Structure formats: structure tokens, C-alpha cells
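Can anyone check this?
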Amino acid sequence: MAEAVTARPYWTGAIRLSLVVLPVRLYHAVDTRSEVHFHQIHKASGKRVRHQNVVPGRGAVERDEIVKGYEYAKDQYVLLEPEELKAVRLESADSFAIVQFVDRNEIDAIYFDEPYFVVPDGDSGLEAFAVVRDALRAEKKVGLGQIVLSGRERIAALQPCGKGMLLETLRYADDLKKAGKYFDDMKKVTVDKDQLGLAKKLIEQKAAPFDPERFKDHYENALRELIERKLKSKGRRIRAEEPEHKGAEVIDLMEALRQSVGRRGGTPKTSAPEPEEASAKKASTPRRPVARSKTRKRA
């Protein structure tokens, strides 16, 4: 019985070896959730900085207004619609056919990219899964083929991994820069035999089986310790400002409407005079006598 996995599979399909078909599920073998992640915060308000899709000269645009474009010349693009991109996606997206077996050490480490755990999809193909896994382990080989992940066809290597298997995507030769471009200018050096012997001796002394548990992410650990210290010491913290009151929004809207009426040729109301101006106007205007009523209403 395959072990229960609650995570959502990254890919579901079949491994094909000649006439053998293995229904499988692929899961990301790398977990980045434990990494410390930061947000960009506006110092003054404490609010997160949000990124917008902006077109120079036009401002922010909606996501549905954006399409993919290939730059074939400076500032010149051929546009590709989502339907056109979908039409060229490969139909082999649901299978991984093994076409060759090689020793893993024949594949240079620079080609390895992303690892995925391979798990049987149900019990029906479990026996065949185990046969292929154990055969690869016995022969110390990996199976090579191509698989479509996220719409792109990748080279992949399949090998045993505990009770399951591991599929690692490989980079194409065209994906890699040419090493000669960086190494050709290095001056040739004649290595001293005694120094070489000492270096070999040092390697021999420090040789040991690979144990990833021996290596810790010191920077990640230091970040977590720093954050813990700041939390315990009540270091500088910030809380996002409360949203503006609705009243302020109404005032801004009314002002915008007034300005809009004025711009469209309407006659905006004359603004009230400033206090000093009103006082001067009042002083320069002769006062008329106020007629008093001859009769008073009795209380």
C-alpha cells in the first residue's frame, strides 16, 4: 500500500517503459516554506508596498489587458494570444517515456535542475512500479526521457529513492553557457608534485560519506535568531495605519465633482472671501440706518 500523501501532486500521469505503464504522481522534493521571507513595508505608514502593472505614459493596467510578446527587434514585439500558446502545447504532457539508461555519474552535475518524488498512483500499478525501481537499483542506472512540466518539455532522469523513485529534470545543452568563455583566458600553471601530493593527502583525510544533516544553513538560522531577539526585546515594530474614514473620502469626492463642473464650462460658485478681505470690504461699505419697529411685541 502506497503511503498516504496529503499534498497536492504537481503532475499526474504515467511512466512508460516499452509496454509497461506505471501510473504515478509527482511531488516537489524541495520545501521552501522553512525559508525566511520578507515583505517590503512603507516606513511611514506600516503598509505593505504593492506592485502594479504599469505602462509608461498610461499608468496602471488590468491583468486582462496584458498579453505575452516576443521582442524580435528593439522595442518591437510580436504578440501571442493565450489560445495560440495553448494550441502549441505538447500532447505528451501526461506521460514520461524512458528511452535510454545511463550511469548517473555520466551526467555532469551542471545539468541537474529540479527534483520530484515519484509515487505510485493507486495500487493497480504498484507491483510494476516496484519491479522497475528495484531493477534500476540493481543495475545502478537512471532512466532518461522527456516530460512536459508547466507547458515546457524537459529532459528528465528517473532513479530509485527509498521505497519510491526520484525524477530530476535536466537542463538542455543550449540552456548552459559555454565554459570556455570563462576559462580560456586562465594562464596555464605547472603544478608542483609535492604540493599536489599534500592536496591529495588532505582530501583523503577529509573524505567521508555524504551526510546532508552535517550542513546547516547558518544565514537562515541567524536570521531566525535575530527575529526572535527583536520580538522578545520588543524591538521596533510597526502596525499598518487604519484605513481613512469614509467622511474624508466623501469630501475628496465632492471636491473632485466641483472641479469637474468648473472644467466643463459650468459656472462654479464664487468662493467665500478670506476673513481679512471680508473685513476690509465691510469697512469700506457705508452702513445704512436700520429701521426700527415702532411697536414691540409684549412678552
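Reply from J.R.: I decoded it. Confidence is low (pLDDT under 50) at residues 246-251, 268-284, 289-299.
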